[in-house]
Write a structure and sequence with these properties.
By secondary structure, the chain is mostly helical. It contains 10 helices and no strands.
């Protein structure tokens, strides 16, 4: 069962598969609504809106968890994040700011908790799958480059690793990263600068 299915099943409170039915027009329109509008519906207990939120964001939350804590716990962490979102849906409000920023902060806190519990994380457990279009030699080179980058990322201090992951892998701006990490923008820019410098050093070995 996929991560997304697990989250949806838990949120529905039922272990049975949902019956397949023709969605009503208002359900079909859910996909066109912005996150903040969906979250207002989620706060009212709307499970269709919650499923859409999960569909939109779970892959990125899994990716963030992989970069911070490794592959072994990434899906479990993502499930926890969305289950907490459902259980504590009243904690978000329009005055909280961007939903995406708020969600990343929740995910980051969960990742930090995991890193505190498991200080030693295997370096090779976050290898990306090879490009199916690449030839054998290209695949080997891609895998080796990925391994080296992942090893280098794992050697960065946690805050540098998080800042780089959010900024470069999740298309967030420095001010958005600052909100998520609860830092000043210049502190985030400093983390990014030092992280890039350290990565260059590690990759040049």
């Amino acid at each position: 069962m996929s991560t997304r299915t697990n989250v949806e099943v838990c949120a529905s409170g039922s272990l049975e598969r949902a019956r397949v039915a023709q969605p009503a027009p208002w359900v079909q329109a859910v996909a066109d609504r912005p996150d903040e509008a969906l979250m207002l519906q989620v706060r009212d207990g709307d499970r269709a809106a919650f499923r859409e939120i999960v569909t939109r964001h779970i892959d990125r939350i899994v990716a963030l968890a992989r970069r911070v804590v490794g592959d072994a716990e990434a899906e479990e962490i993502a499930q926890d994040v969305f289950l907490k979102l459902w259980a504590r849906k009243d904690q978000w409000s329009p005055g909280t700011g961007s939903f995406r920023t708020w969600l990343y902060r929740v995910a980051l806190n969960r990742c930090i908790d995991a890193t505190r519990k498991h200080r030693a994380v295997p370096l090779d457990d976050t290898i990306d799958p090879p490009d199916e279009r690449a030839g054998p030699l290209e695949t080997c080179e891609t895998n080796e480059t990925t391994r080296r980058l992942r090893r280098a990322m794992r050697e960065l201090p946690v805050r540098q690793r998080i800042a780089i992951a959010l900024y470069y892998s999740h298309d967030l701006t420095a001010p958005e990263v600052a909100v998520i990490m609860k830092l000043r923008v210049n502190a985030v820019e400093s983390l990014l600068k030092r992280g890039r410098h350290r990565l260059r050093e590690l990759l040049s070995r």
